[in-house]
Design goal:
Strand order of the largest sheet: 13-12-11-16-17-18
Distance between the termini: 59 Å
Helix content: 10-25%
Radius of gyration: 30 Å
Largest sheet: 6 strands, antiparallel
Bound molecules: zinc ion
Structural class: alpha+beta
Length: 429
């Protein structure tokens, strides 16, 4: 069981207290049995974790103001080998130098690096909340939705997008499984102030501010829309992992990307976003072009903070047919749709984002409502008698005049046949 929420003040801690904090965290997170070694010299080992696969040697460094360099990594690696352990972990309340990160990546057995950002994530998962003197920011998160709201948002979204008759989307909807994914992200805020000159003077100025997310588990830049959507003030409370029932969490991914690596990824992304080719005329009236790439010195990353974004993955049935919807929610009643299986027409395979889709009330197929002149080419039809929404395979036709066809649902087609009228089904290739 995870303990109740507890605040840990790192500033007041000495090295020994920090080691026992690490011990508590590893125990709470079920890493294994944690042995606290007596403080002898600088052997490069403070804790040993025993699990089924073997031993892990842990070195704890409570050094918020320094970067851990390569020598500490090397020393721990030697300790791992002499101990016959399967891996090593260095935990710091500060950062790692680039040399340390690069060196650790080459080692076997593996040396895992945990910096202050990742430590904050682990601590939060263990039901505690770290406060340091430099940054008191816990990991931001957003209100999690309950089942009723999740289904309400799903039905609301689908009802907006889908026409259905006589069944309503709400009546056709049946939830199957809901997973909540807490995506760990770094929010990057930056400003840029760069000027580009040639012999004729300034040809371009790049001045702006922006923000975006980087996925904390794989280092990928997340599309701009997400950071804008989540730009309202997050709920400042730490996430209470013990409040989140574990069977609703599909994927409980930790922060795996070090804060220093995030900064490099962010810088590269900002440079790429703000590089442009500018055309200008020189004194001789010739047109020139210049690629304006902002230099790092003109880019100011003002903030890197951690958040968990709640994402909801819904498996449901609409008239018996399986559909999936994935959306993010920032605690407001607007959702940010990430993936919607009803948005691709199964007949033409095209994405339907703006126009409505149609739910066939015979078979549950959801198709585009693109208006072809000839009804037989349309992917969504309505019964001319009762108004039932139909897909092409479920529609029958009765001839009216010359080229005019009456579209019929199964029930109305049977009625027509009983009254002796000729009804055809369209055979599709
Ligand atoms: Zn279509
Ligand atoms: Zn159908
Ligand atoms: Zn009908």
């Amino acid at each position: 069981m995870k303990s109740a929420s507890r605040t840990v003040y790192l500033t007041d801690m000495d090295g020994f207290e920090f080691e026992s904090l690490c011990k508590t965290i590893f125990e709470q997170l079920d890493y294994g049995r944690v042995e606290l070694l007596p403080p002898v010299g600088d052997g490069g080992r403070d804790l040993i974790i025993h699990d089924q696969q073997g031993k892990t040697v842990v070195e704890c460094k409570h050094q918020p103001k320094t970067s851990i360099g390569r020598p500490i990594i090397q020393k721990l690696h030697s300790a791992v080998i002499s101990e016959g352990a399967r891996k090593g972990i260095v935990v710091t309340t500060g950062k790692f130098s680039r040399q340390a990160i690069e060196h650790a990546a080459t080692l076997s057995p593996e040396i895992e690096l945990i910096d202050i950002a990742m430590l904050r994530d682990l601590t939060s998962r263990a039901g505690m909340h770290i406060v340091t003197d430099q940054e008191s920011a816990p990991i931001h998160t957003y209100q999690l939705l309950g089942t009723e709201k999740i289904n309400g948002f799903t039905v609301g979204h689908l009802s907006n997008k889908i026409v259905s008759h006589p069944a309503t989307v709400k009546g056709a909807y049946s939830p199957q499984r809901t997973d909540i994914l807490l995506r760990p992200v770094y929010r990057i805020r930056y400003s840029i102030d760069a000027e580009f000159s040639t012999s004729i003077g300034v040809v371009h100025a790049e001045r702006s501010m922006g923000q975006f997310f980087i996925d904390g588990s794989d280092g990928k830049v997340i599309s701009e829309g997400a950071a804008d959507y989540f730009s309202s003030t997050p709920i400042q409370n730490m996430l209470r992992w013990d409040n989140v029932s574990s069977n609703t969490i599909a994927s409980d991914q930790p922060f795996k990307i070090l804060a220093s690596t995030v900064k490099e990824i962010a810088m590269d992304n900002i440079i790429r976003r703000h590089t442009q080719t500018v055309r200008y005329s020189g004194r001789n009236n010739h047109t020139y072009s210049k690629e304006c790439t902002p230099p790092k010195k003109d880019i100011f990353i003002s903030d890197i903070s951690q958040e968990y974004l709640p994402e909801y993955q819904i498996d449901c049935l609409l008239l018996g047919r399986a559909q999936q919807l994935e959306f993010a929610n920032n605690g407001t009643s607007l959702i940010h749709v990430l993936n919607d299986s009803t948005s691709i027409c199964p007949i033409c395979k095209e994405h339907v984002n703006q126009e409505k889709r149609s739910l066939c009330n015979e078979c549950g197929l959801i198709t585009c409502t693109k208006k072809y002149f000839f009804k037989k080419k349309r992917h969504a039809l309505e019964c001319d008698v009762c108004g039932k929404t139909l897909c092409p395979s479920c529609a029958s036709y009765a001839s009216r005049m010359l080229l005019m066809k009456t579209v019929l649902c199964v029930g109305c087609a049977n009625d027509f046949t009983r009254r002796g009228k000729r009804v055809k089904t369209l055979i599709r290739a």
